[in-house]
């Protein structure tokens, strides 16, 4: 029988990584200002661009520019 922890190991070819998230989020209901009031220090293009209406637009800098403007 395989070790019980083995089910957490990735089944891919990238170092059989183990992903564990033991952090308990405490502030899920915090206030987030509207987009036009936010100051962006760092941005992940894949997460910011596109959206539910156009998932194919994800990961493109031109769509980040359109969304910011």
From TrEMBL:
Domain of life: Eukaryota
Region (Disordered): 50-69
Alphabetical list of InterPro entries matching this protein: GH
Protein name in the entry: Uncharacterized protein
Taxonomic source organism: Rotaria sordida
